[in-house]
Amino acid sequence: MRKIAFGYSTRCNVKCEHCVAADAAHDHAKMELAQAKALIVEMAEAQVRGISFTAGEPLLYIDDICQLVDLCRAHGIYTRVVSNSFWAKTPEQAESCTKKLKEHGLSQLRLSYSRWHQKNIARQNVLNAAQSCQKIGLDYFISFVTDFSEQDDAVERYLRDHNLKFFPEPVIYAGRAETIVHQPLRTDYQANCCPMNPYLAPSLDMYACCDAGSHFTRTNFFRLGNAKESGIEALFKKSETNPLYNHIRTIGMTDIASFIGFSAREIIGYRKCELCEIMFNSPAMLKKLQQKCSLELDSWHR
Ligand code: SF4
Ligand code: SF4
Questions:
Q1: Within a domain: residue 72?
Q2: Model pLDDT, residue 176
Q3: What is the distance in A from the centroid of ligand 1 to the CA of 267?
Q4: For residues 279 and 256, is the Cβ–Cβ distance under 8 A?
């Protein structure tokens, strides 16, 4: 199923230090509403079946987002909005906003939550937002961003104590998060496959990865092209037919790293996106992988 992260605007009302979306060069970029609508129609024609409104804080433009969600509903597209809950200071304010989103046909609200968010947005807001979703019957979940350090235990407990639906998500050390302290890590020797949903930026540049990969500016490995110049269908096709992208989806980052010569001990010291960056944001290593990809990597086994 084709899905995409839709960056209507990169503007946000707060500045979290762990923000993967932050990009100093495009702090306040925004699409034109008419252009966003035309793109959604084009996406529907290209059989896109899920759109996640993300990037900065989408609900700074709630009236525009409601129109876009409405349009998605008319085309049978599942919608999600990712928000920091700034609009949910009281239960009444929370309910007024969630009701509006539901009336326009939003499928799911995803609430961002972490100890870094809490420096800017009170956790009570997230609670108000989640409880208003429960009350009015709007699907939601809380994305609990964590570096798995002990100081996050209490942050997680708050969600458990209130019976909220949440999902732990590792910090991605890209964007503004590049400069925060990286906790040392030893993972299992796991596959590290990645589904790679594309991301459309307000500039209409489209990337094959909606997380750290859009920041790989040394190689621009994940940049598919510009939607205005190439069209949505062609950019999706490019993402789906690139042999290296398909290896990331199917055999995963660990086997690709092993193939290129990384030892098992080295591999377990990297997070998935870090391993990806080391291999694909290095012009020399990328060239080597591209040369070997179709001949050797296709038939490689350990
Ligand atoms: S993490 Fe979310 S709320 Fe925080 S600055 Fe980034 S977009 Fe805004
Ligand atoms: S592992 Fe690579 S493709 Fe997957 S989210 Fe991270 S940077 Fe993107």
A1: yes
A2: 80
A3: 30
A4: yes
Q: Would you say residue 289 lies in a domain?
A: no
On whether residue 302 sits in a domain, the answer given is: no
The beta-carbon contacts of 253-260 under 8 Å, at least 24 apart in sequence, are 253/191, 253/192, 253/193, 253/194, 253/279, 254/189, 254/190, 254/191, 254/192, 255/191, 255/300, 255/302, 256/289, 256/297, 258/302, 259/292, 259/296, 259/297, 259/300, 260/285, 260/288, 260/289
What is the residue range of 120's domain?
A: 2-183
Beta carbon of 14 within 6 Å of any ligand 1 atom: yes
Q: Is the pTM of this model over 0.85?
A: yes
**Pick from 82, 78, 100, 103: which is nearest to 9 by CA?**
82
For Cα atoms 36, 167, 274, give the angle at the middle one, nearest 5 degrees. Answer: 75
Summarize pLDDT for 89-133 with one digit per residue, the tens: 999 999 999 999 999 999 999 999 999 999 999 999 999 999 999
Residues 94 and 104: beta-carbon distance below 8 Å: no
Q: What is d(CA 40, CA 101) in angstroms, rounded to the nearest whole number?
A: 18
Cα torsion angle, 175, 243, 191, 198, sign: positive
Q: Is 114 in the pocket of ligand 1 (CB under 6 A)?
A: no
Number of domains the chain contains? 1
211 lines ligand 2 (CB under 6 A): yes
Of 176, 229, 171, 224, give the one whose Cα is nearest residue 198: 224
Indicate which atom in ligand 1 lies nearest the CA of residue 21: 6
Instruction: Establish if 126 belongs to a structural domain.
Output: yes
Sorting pLDDT into bands at 50, 70 and 90, what band is 73? very high
Ligand nearest to the CA of 172: 2
CATH of the domain at 110: 3.20.20.70
